[in-house]
Amino acid sequence: MEFSALLTSAGINIAVCILFLSLYSVLRKQPHNFSVYFGRRLAEEKFQKQDDYFSFERLLPTAGWIVKAYWCTEEEIRQVAGLDSVVFLRLFIFSIRIFSITSLICVFGVLPVNYHGKEITHDHIPTEPLNVFTIANIIEESQKLWVHCIALYIITISACILLFNEYKYISRKRLAHITGSSPNPGHFTVLVRSIPKSDNELLDDTIRNFFVNYHGSSYLSHQMILRKGHFQSFVDRAERAYRKFVRVRLSVSERNGKSSMSRCGVCGVRASSFQIYRNKFIEAKKADLTNPEVVDAQKNCPGALVFFKTRYAAVVASRVLQSSNPMLWVTDLAPEPRDVYWSNLWIPYKQIWLRKLATLAASVVFMFVFIIPVAFVQSMMQLEQLKKMFPNLRGLLNKSFFARVVTGYLPSVVLLLSLYTVPPLMMLFSSIEGSISRSGRKRSACLKILFFTVWNVFFVNVLSGSVLNQLNVFTRPKDMPTMLAELVPKQATFFITYVLTSGWASLCSEILQVYNLVYNFFSKCIFCCHQNTEYVYSFPYHTEVPKVLLFILLGFTFAIMAPLILPFLLVYFCLGYLVYRNQILNVYYPKYEMGGKLWPIMHNTIVFSLVLMQVIALGVFTIKHSPVATGFTILLLVATILFNEYCRHRFSRIFEAYSAQDVIELDRDDEQSGRMQEIHQHLQDAYSQTPPGAEGSSRSGGQVPIELILEDPAQEASESSQELCDTVQEVSEAHEHSIEEAAGKAHCV
Amino acid sequence: MEFSALLTSAGINIAVCILFLSLYSVLRKQPHNFSVYFGRRLAEEKFQKQDDYFSFERLLPTAGWIVKAYWCTEEEIRQVAGLDSVVFLRLFIFSIRIFSITSLICVFGVLPVNYHGKEITHDHIPTEPLNVFTIANIIEESQKLWVHCIALYIITISACILLFNEYKYISRKRLAHITGSSPNPGHFTVLVRSIPKSDNELLDDTIRNFFVNYHGSSYLSHQMILRKGHFQSFVDRAERAYRKFVRVRLSVSERNGKSSMSRCGVCGVRASSFQIYRNKFIEAKKADLTNPEVVDAQKNCPGALVFFKTRYAAVVASRVLQSSNPMLWVTDLAPEPRDVYWSNLWIPYKQIWLRKLATLAASVVFMFVFIIPVAFVQSMMQLEQLKKMFPNLRGLLNKSFFARVVTGYLPSVVLLLSLYTVPPLMMLFSSIEGSISRSGRKRSACLKILFFTVWNVFFVNVLSGSVLNQLNVFTRPKDMPTMLAELVPKQATFFITYVLTSGWASLCSEILQVYNLVYNFFSKCIFCCHQNTEYVYSFPYHTEVPKVLLFILLGFTFAIMAPLILPFLLVYFCLGYLVYRNQILNVYYPKYEMGGKLWPIMHNTIVFSLVLMQVIALGVFTIKHSPVATGFTILLLVATILFNEYCRHRFSRIFEAYSAQDVIELDRDDEQSGRMQEIHQHLQDAYSQTPPGAEGSSRSGGQVPIELILEDPAQEASESSQELCDTVQEVSEAHEHSIEEAAGKAHCV
């Protein structure tokens, strides 16, 4: 590929980007698109709906959104979108900083050295092949390799300093988040699984006895996790009918704990009556020990949520091994209520290790099977091969412009499209794995997608690009550095176009929300369906974080090999920063909080990128016979690994556990201010188990922050009123029956 | 090597073994050797010293010791030598069981199949080369490989069943050990390191304030770990002088906590007076906050031992992250007093991670550098090469008997001798690593030596035996199975002789205690030095466990490849069981208790051996083109890994942490029986810090169970009396001075 082909590709992409961004700035002003572009604000009802008047201004592209996104402070973002968004944006800030330094050094220092690496005459830059800009252009035993070595040192040292500061900053933010946030039921609750069953005691009593016996001073109460039995499903049906009638709005006041349910207009009973019924049922069920169904339900119980009086007691109970059999009484700190992944809580604990191994194996297999489409994409890079495969297109391919598009643009588009199948699959694997929280599942999926992306985009492209059928090269770890050093510069062209297409284009598609826009257009304008369900998405960290980290990896690995990639990357990071800020502020709504736990993953990947950069440089210096530079690079490699070890010791436990000091201070504050009593009362109702089968898995978290907003409840009322009345009848009958039974028993006694 | 050469080697070894064992049975009856062969019994003074009369019976070899060693029960061994000895002997029991099964299957099932693998006529077995007994004799695509596959299944399944039962049995023993033993100060104590320094507060107060603040209900007291300052060394000198006079005997009553110190005859003061002086000094030092030396000592304090009121509180404090900076207030459960490795407690906590990495790197480097002597040993195997190297010996080497000795015996002796340098070095590495307990150091050394042995004895011999200069084969993990499958059967001869020489001979040298015997002989009989220091050794788990595990590895890997090794191994395990039982009962004295923590290491290594056996079998089946057998072996491999994972989840945490249930029950028992008060009083004095510089590193543990036994204290008295009087003078002056100062201060106030 020539320099001019690169410019063509860049030109196309810049044009496309400007077009899409202008389109966005117009589309976001159209009232019927508000639900697509202002989902979060609509959900919080802060966004004042404008009247649907038409003005010419609505059709003009403007840059106001960029200004708004830029001037928003970090504290504002934390308040509206949680700590995770802040961490994600810090990743961009780090990238912009480090790649500004890197670009400065590499474009003005390394690039000229590469260009003048061989003693040949350069006349016309646009017709130069791209590899004169790479390190491949430098002759062996050249003194100029010192420039590369110094650049390596500057990049690594500044990256380490910036990384350390970021880790420190984010740790501080996380601690402030833990101590500063309103009381979280998850801090007081421990999830106990694998409770031993005894024949002469109900499980309920077993749990109570155990915790009263060993944690008597701090045990508050517990709530069993019940599999859905007949009894349960019956109550659920009633609730489901009731929910259909009630218009639940998430208002700010509700989020602060006050319930503002409106009356259900058909029956004339208060909306919370069902809750009362439900509680009575549960009480009745508790008393009824002779009922085989109750006993059966208890037998099937996979665990319980145990509430403690203080946060410290919960932390202690979760950290200490409970029983001398480590497979019994397994305790974990419970996720916060909206984060609980209920359907996974029903998995018997004994399966978890097997599930983890199985999903690990499945992910690895998938990672390697995916080589096939990537190899196909790579084969498309070679024009000659393409001409052989499609002889009909020979005429078209002989034209210069088409050839450029095909070699420079199409391969990465195909790769991008095939990559879209990965996140859902990895998310499925992570669900099967048995994570107890939604955030844990997302983190696990993020990690899987990250491994997948780095392997299939970076390694497979680098290695199979030139030695397609020599897959056995993977089995020689010792030759890896020199092999990478040979192959990486050759693939520079592909990755530069990858940044242009996959990187820039993905930002455009992100800001335009193409899928939602089209869906919205069809449902609103074509089918005139006004009662559509305005579902607000949470931020897809599991797809976006690996994407950004891949670009950081590309940036580091190509920094001294092929510095031409850096300006394009820098543009990507700057644009990405603005786009994601805007999206986080306007579109996505955080359904649960990971508390910045993604940062260690990001940190480790960045350090891995640095190490990979050094390993490749090591290979290059070996190939070019520069032993002193090789020695200095090994030194740098060791120092980088030591730096990472230090960071791990210094910070990583902050992201895994709560410290006694913080937790005890929080407990003391609450006790002194008298809030503790209130917290204890709320704890009992915090975790409500709505089985996912009953309401769809997307809303199984019990406390769903954003409910479906029914525009006109009366419309659906006619259909469901019969169901509701039947259910109410059933409920009250069953209730009376159980009361009679209890009374009968009392008589007998 | 021919079968007859093997028989020669076996013959030599059997003769040597019988000779050594007879020699042992004679030597142990000689009274002047009692200190060598009955060290533990002498130390416990249970062994009744016989009069030194001469009888003819004393010169007759007998087998009584074997009977005694065999009939001793496991419970007796646990009581006299601790749980670790039991675990070590269980390893032998496991080995005998599994290799009985394996020998039965392989010698009667696999060996005939191997022998008749090719359609050739066998006439005279002794002249057969050994490789007709190996799997190399089987032709490709043979149906007979099914026998090997079935043997593999039977061996793996029975090994897994036995392993699981052993793990379960040892876990139960460990739990019984924790709950059944007398109160251990280590259970109540937490070692706190990396205490933040503040300018306006003494470290002593910082510690007290922190624990009173956050663990107020359970905090008892604390003891600072002080680096040796001038003040300290001065007190130490006094103590040292005092100790020279006192004859301390370890009697059973003393071990139970009662002090039975005799009077020191020169000064007329009671023996414990120095303890009183010492305590007064420490008190005076505490009050004296203006003394820059005291302030300085506090600044240099690397940590403290914090005592808690209950075991549960100590467990909680050790498990929970204390501060929001994970590098501060680092807590670990303290080792028991005699197990503390004081000189490592003085290492600043911030260095620990760096030290661990550095020793890891050093061990790995040493592991690879050691290849050179091993390669030399291997080159000695080839007679032709030897003839070239030493042309003078050509005449000798041409003789059949010498040739057999050289090829069959010498190489493993050389290897064995060079291996003797490894344990001290690995022990040094483990000391540098910064382990806080002696048992932790030994465990770490054991693991290092294990890796070293498996790598340098097994892998390097297998791989470099035939492809000496092709060390780059290590870099192709994919080809490993087929490569091992080709090379392992070829090295069968070497390893069979290795079992004979290294295995059997090491048992003989173990039971004879050659080094101690010679030392004892010279010191007692030649130099007539009767006041020699009778030092009792603790069992060298770090050298013996890797040795036994290596033989288990050899047994599994050669089981189906070259079954001839199995009978020799079985003899080794049976003999080893008796020899080590005898040595544990008579010679070694347990100075500290690891609580069976070596078992997980043993278990993992055995599972690794099984996996290696399967991987090699996989290679063999691939080479011999038996795809169905390959498939079945992969299935077995996966099942074995799953089995190991299950065991890890089921048992490993028992060996890492104490469970709340057990610990709380223990606390309750002590509280109800009123023993708690007594335990608390003892806690304060349990950990005494005697700097190793003052008394030699071997006795730095404070509570040294076995003191030097001075036969005649009067002899040394004349030398030390002057020193003692001087020191007493100094001590009392300094004491008076400090009292005056304190009084002066009181006046000022």
TrEMBL record, chains A, B:
Per the similarity annotation, which family is this? Belongs to the CSC1 (TC 1.A.17) family.
Its localization reads:
Membrane
The answer on whether this UniProt entry bears the keyword Transport reads: yes
Q: Which residues form the CSC1/OSCA1-like 7TM region domain?
A: 355-621
Basic and acidic residues: bias regions: 671-683
Q: What's the protein here called?
A: CSC1/OSCA1-like 7TM region domain-containing protein
For bias type Polar residues, the affected ranges are 686-701
Q: Give TM segment ranges.
A: 6-27, 87-111, 145-164, 357-381, 401-429, 449-468, 548-580, 601-623, 629-647
Give yes or no: UniProt keyword Ion transport: yes
